[in-house]
Design brief:
heterodimer; A: alpha/beta; Rossmann fold; six-stranded mixed beta sheet; B: about 300 residues; two-stranded antiparallel sheet; 11 helices; binds adenosine-5'-triphosphate; binds magnesium ion
Chain lengths: ~240, ~300
């Protein structure tokens, strides 16, 4: 569904991605793990053309989307739950969700998806009129995911959705990711909780200072000694 | 002061306050979305007034057609200024955009002086809109009612647009976060353009009503009203639309009342706006309705 070939990205003089290739097949969960600063967020940002690709190709459903404007890429059915949630703090919960559906015109479809999001996150329904900036961290994360779903994407990319959440909420986030996946979504996931992420993933990639150094089926990677030592904090 | 004269002053102050409020919104909306003090905003008043003036006098068009053309062309000009002078500097430091705005303002003023002559010209008041109303001992111009009514309708429309429409929600989202807005498939440039369009249209209407109320036009006529409306926007809390409305009314009312109650100070009328501004900012640094937080550096 999504295919990246030899992607390179620079921030000024910093060579953030040095030729990343990866593939996200339809209806799979793929995770991207790696240390801080490895280039995980950069990869997702480059897919949406929030940072320009210096070289390499990005294909979505066979179509070359490299260098296309962000707005067009989103309209093709990709969405990103950005690092740090980035909800619109000055808008209400409802308005944030409406922003998610900005490009859509099918009113009944939007209503249906809104109900779906509320079923997934009942707390958001209770807080429909609350200004999003006053939500708790966990609620903001739910809102960021809900907002992304409102565009009715075919590929959802999540950048550390469980970051900064209490253990119970982390579990909740993973449960939600599974729910979304079972609903037929394709997911590209970045997670600090590498073990948990790899366990639910069909396939995983390990990114190290701008290069993919390891890859394999999720469970295999989770058991890989090298990965354990480097990323999972287990000797 | 006799009650009649007092009433007269109240009416005048509301009229002036309305005009300030209308023009202040353009400053606050543009600041809210791209954090720019749009110096050229003031000169849009002048442009609108001149187009209306020439429409009526030179092309002898009916007032409503002249006014409509003035509003449309001024709106286009406002949007074009953003397109040509600000958009290319989107990722440049803020000070560059500010300097660009000052440049546009000087350009418009000097083009005005060269093309139209520096001498003020009397603005023709359409008979349909301006007549005398006699109520007992008080006589006042129809504009005293017309201007506040038009203003309030426009303020309600803008408030509705920003609060309830899709474009309004997008404007608020973009004002918060460009990058994430584009992740929502929002065309950020379009939304910024729309913001300029709304602000410029209001400035155009404000400018036309201004030149009916104080019936003359000159190329620098935007200068003082512009400055004061900017002050009104800051007073209300720059970035806040209701703030700009309140700031505009407060400033207009204070100014007229100062002159009415202390005529000996009337020479300080223009300086007075700054006094009010400083007083308000001393107590509420973010303005009346602004976010009173220290900006993160
Ligand atoms: N806007 C930027 N300007 C300059 N350098 C940047 C920018 N964003 C990221 N970088 C650099 O690019 C490299 C990759 O950053 P990236 O954010 O992709 O890492 P990450 O893998 O997501 O890390 P983390 O786990 O901490 O989120 C880092 O060295 C970072 O310092
Ligand atoms: Mg990151």
């Amino acid at each position: 569904m999504l295919k990246i070939e030899e992607l390179q990205v620079f921030y000024g003089g910093i060579h953030a991605l040095k030729g990343v290739s990866l593939e996200v097949p339809k209806n799979k969960i793929i995770s991207l793990i790696g240390a801080n600063g490895a280039g995980k967020s950069t990869t997702l940002r480059a897919i949406c053309n929030q940072v320009p690709a210096a070289s390499g190709k990005i294909y979505f459903e066979g179509e070359d989307i490299t260098g296309k404007p962000t707005v067009d890429i989103i309209k093709k059915g990709i969405t990103l739950v950005p690092e740090g949630r980035r909800i619109f703090a000055n808008l209400t919960v409802m308005e944030n969700l409406q922003m998610g559906a900005y490009a859509r015109k099918d009113k009944p479809g939007i209503q249906k998806d809104l109900q779906k999001v509320f079923e997934l996150f009942p707390r958001l329904r209770e807080r429909e009129w609350q200004v999003a900036g006053t939500l708790s961290g966990g609620e903001q994360q739910m809102l960021a995911i809900g907002r992304a779903l409102m565009s009715r994407p075919r590929l959802i990319m999540m950048d550390e959705p469980s970051l900064g959440l209490a253990p119970l909420l982390v579990k909740e986030v993973f449960r939600i990711i599974m729910d979304i996946y079972k609903d037929g979504m394709t997911i590209l996931l970045i997670e600090q909780n590498a073990t948990a992420a790899l366990k639910i993933s069909d396939y995983g990639y390990v990114l190290e200072t701008g290069n993919i150094t390891l890859q394999g089926p999720g469970k295999e990677l989770a058991d890989n000694e090298e990965v354990k030592r480097a990323y999972l904090g287990k000797a | 002061m006799s009650p009649d004269i007092f009433l007269q002053n109240v009416a005048n102050s509301i009229t002036l306050g309305s005009l300030y409020a209308l023009i202040a919104i353009g400053y606050t909306m543009v600041y809210g979305i791209i954090r720019l003090i749009n110096f050229a905003h003031a000169d849009l008043l002048m442009v609108a007034a001149y187009i209306a003036f020439y429409g009526m006098l030179v092309f002898t068009l009916p007032w409503y057609i002249s006014f409509a053309i003035a509003i449309v062309l001024t709106t286009l000009l406002g949007v074009t200024i953003e397109r040509v002078a600000y958009r290319p500097l989107r990722s440049a430091p803020r000070i560059s955009v500010l300097i660009s705005a000052i440049g546009v303002s000087f350009l418009l003023q000097n083009l005005g002086i060269v093309a139209l002559g520096a001498r003020p010209k009397p603005f023709p008041r359409p008979d349909d809109l301006v007549w005398n109303i006699q109520l007992g001992n008080v006589s006042f111009l129809s504009l005293t009612i017309l201007i506040p009514v038009v203003t309030i309708i426009l303020l309600l429309m803008v408030t509705f647009m920003v609060k309830k429409t899709k474009m309004g929600i997008a404007m608020r989202a973009v004002s918060r976060d460009f990058e994430t807005s584009s992740l929502m498939a929002v065309n950020v440039n379009k939304v910024i353009g729309a913001t300029f369009a709304v602000g410029s249209a209001l400035a155009a209407i404000g400018g036309i009503m201004w030149s009916m109320q104080y019936p003359q036009v000159d190329p620098l006529m935007g200068l003082f009203p512009g400055l004061k409306c900017f002050i009104a926007a800051v007073m209300g809390g720059i970035g806040s639309i209701p703030g700009a409305m309140i700031g505009g009314f407060i400033l207009g009312i204070c100014e007229v009342m100062l002159v009415a109650f202390m005529p000996e100070l009337s020479g300080y009328r223009d300086a007075f706006a700054f006094v009010v501004l400083i007083l308000i900012l001393l107590f509420r640094p973010g303005g009346i309705l602004g976010e009173n937080v220290v900006e993160k550096v």
